[in-house]
Amino acid sequence: MAGKLHEKAILLSLNISAYQGTKIDRAVTNDVQVQNNAESNSGKYSKKLLPYYTTTINNEMAKLRKWHDSVTLPWDKAGRNIMLGRGYLAHIKEFAVKKAKIMDMVDDFVDNHLDAEIAKDQTRLGKMWKQSDYPTKDELRNCYSIKLIPEALSNNDDFRLDLQESEVDTIKAEIEEAMKEKEEKAMKDLWTRIYEVVSHFAEILRNPDANFKQPTIDNIEKLCNMLPILNITGDYALENMAKEIKEKVTSVGAEDLRYDSITRNKTSKAVDEILQRMGMYV
What we know:
Strand content: 5-15%
Order of helices and strands: HEEHEHEEHHEHHHHH
Radius of gyration: 26 Å
Largest sheet: 4 strands, antiparallel
CATH class of the largest domain: Mainly Alpha
Low-confidence stretches: none
Oligomer: single chain
CATH topology of the largest domain: Four Helix Bundle (Hemerythrin (Met), subunit A)
Structural class: alpha+beta
CATH architecture of the largest domain: Up-down Bundle
């Protein structure tokens, strides 16, 4: 693939915040410590507030992050991910739909159910319940935030410091080496993803009692179709491997694998050969 990585890729930071619904009860903590003759640093009692809606919404946020991670590649310790720029517009469109769904859930919770859930907590928590533990509607709504922040990948050639030329060259070489390590790590993650799904499929093929389901095959094909926007280095081996998987594996229907032993054995052999070659990349 022509062009340097900074010219064709984009970094993405997914920042999520949410109301956790926990509150340390110092009075109960003190009572437990006294009853058990325990020291003050022995532990704390944490109350769970508004558990149904906080858990439901936070689970949806976790699904959003899992989806985001599945269609991008990990990049650095700051938690940023990377993808090719040509996939960005489609990504933010789908992200906007998923974000809107979650924020609608937040609005529904705050506007229509908060008071009732606080009342339920009063019964559930008994003497531990305190009105002061709960946020106002505006405070609760502001606890929830979902942001997808795009950033340009730095250009190692555009490096300016008031240093000797030899020192600049040394620093640039170190930056390029770090960049190379990140690229290699991201691509290994991509190879591992596809290896794992194909390996799982191979295990199913080896099981004579397995009940083949089309979604299993569809998931492999979906990952293969995503590779063009995840293959940040233009790895031809990865491109060719994806084509081969689609030709020899996902082109076979679940019903054929279920009832046609010849097709099943042929596909199983092809998958094993593919996995053997993929092993050198993971």
